[in-house]
């Protein structure tokens, strides 16, 4: 009897809750695996999927979003061995799980911290409440591939935004495996979309896309490329998050800056009764 040949896995994109190959048909070899090589068209498709998911995700209750993020942590906990087989250190997997739980807990508390009643001179109530900004493009750091990606995705989606994420080009397997976790965690399709491949090909498309509302340039190490992306983002007044390298301590308390940067504030005036 001939020896069985194992099925070799091709790591695909994650767009709209599905796992398509790149529309270009391209792939590249990295981490001893075939990984889809995203094109500009794939980036545009991901934005379309993210925009379609905005209404439902932003309209969900904060409590429900927190439940789903906690479910992601549960599913990730059950796949520890799979991430270990990809070379992700155990302490990094633990930190990624804990980060999902941490952000899940903020889902229904951030409006109390970041919103509230404002003092005004007049017979009015003046109330400010945070709202999601919409579609957010994020560039994940090169390392740590899993914890870094979780640390830029979770703060964007917990407040009701949807995300198109460009994964680490040199270590994308953790990102695609995380996508498999998200796909089985009750997260609606299109809330998170993950692209693999060359940043120089997909990120400029996201930065200049008129239906992207904000962009997080955390994973862009090239200062010239980052500056060019900021110029492209200015075309439709995207909100740009560009942390200093010193802020990339992924083991530290993440704080609330990443969440609040990707929020809009709606202020309502309401007359008081006499």
Report what the structure shows.
This protein has helices at 40-59, 62-77, 80-85, 90-106, 110-114, 145-157, 173-183, 199-208, 223-233, 257-261, and strands spanning 10-11, 27-30, 33-36, 116-117, 124-132, 135-139, 162-166, 192-195, 214-216, 239-241, 263-271. The protein is α/β, with parallel strands linked by helices. The protein has one domain (27-271): Aldehyde Dehydrogenase, Chain A, domain 1 (3-Layer(aba) Sandwich), CATH 3.40.605.10. The protein is built from ten helices and eleven strands. It is 42% helix and 18% strand. The strands form three sheets. Strands 8-7-6-9-10 form a five-stranded parallel sheet, with helices on both faces. Helix 1 (40-59) packs across helix 8 (199-208), helix 2 (62-77) runs antiparallel to helix 4 (90-106) and helix 4 (90-106) runs parallel beside helix 6 (145-157).
Structural class: alpha/beta
CATH topology descriptor: Aldehyde Dehydrogenase, Chain A, domain 1
- What CATH architecture would you give? 3-Layer(aba) Sandwich
Physical arrangement of strands within the biggest beta sheet = 8-7-6-9-10
Helicity range: 40-55%
Task: List the secondary-structure elements in sequence, H or E.
Answer: EEEHHHHHEEEHEHEHEHEHE
Under CATH at level 1, the class stands as Alpha Beta
Task: Determine the CATH superfamily.
Answer: Aldehyde Dehydrogenase, Chain A, domain 1
The main sheet comes to:
5 strands, parallel
Number of domains: 1
Global Rg: 19 Å
The counted number of beta strands is 11
Principal-axes shape call: globular
How many helices in DSSP terms?
10
**Mean of residue pLDDT?**
93
Amino-to-carboxy terminus distance: 90 Å
Please mark out the parts with pLDDT under 50 across 5 or more consecutive residues, or reply none.
none
């Amino acid at each position: 009897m001939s020896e069985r040949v194992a099925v070799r896995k091709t790591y695909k994109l994650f767009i709209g809750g599905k796992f398509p190959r790149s529309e270009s048909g391209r792939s590249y070899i990295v981490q001893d695996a075939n990984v889809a090589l995203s094109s500009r068209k794939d980036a545009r498709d991901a934005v379309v999927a993210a925009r379609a998911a905005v209404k439902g995700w932003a309209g969900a209750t904060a409590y429900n979003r927190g439940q789903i993020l906690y479910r992601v942590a549960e599913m990730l906990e059950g796949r520890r061995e799979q991430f270990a087989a990809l070379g992700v250190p155990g302490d990094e997997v633990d930190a990624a799980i804990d980060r999902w739980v941490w952000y899940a807990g903020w889902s229904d508390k951030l409006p109390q911290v970041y919103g509230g009643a404002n003092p005004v001179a007049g017979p009015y109530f003046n109330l400010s409440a945070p709202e999601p900004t919409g579609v957010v493009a994020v560039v994940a750091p090169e390392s740590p591939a899993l914890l870094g990606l979780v640390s830029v995705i979770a703060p964007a989606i917990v407040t009701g935004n949807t995300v198109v994420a460009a994964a680490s080009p040199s270590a994308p397997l953790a990102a695609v495996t995380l996508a498999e976790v998200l796909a089985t965690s009750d997260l609606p399709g299109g809330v998170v979309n993950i692209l693999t491949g060359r940043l120089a090909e997909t990120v400029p498309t996201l930065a200049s896309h008129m239906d992207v509302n904000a962009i997080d340039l955390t994973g862009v190490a090239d200062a010239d490329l980052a500056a060019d992306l900021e110029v492209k983002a200015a075309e439709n007044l995207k909100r740009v998050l560009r942390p200093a390298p010193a802020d990339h301590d992924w083991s530290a308390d993440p704080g609330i800056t990443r969440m609040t940067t990707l929020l809009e504030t709606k202020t309502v005036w309401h007359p008081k009764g006499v």
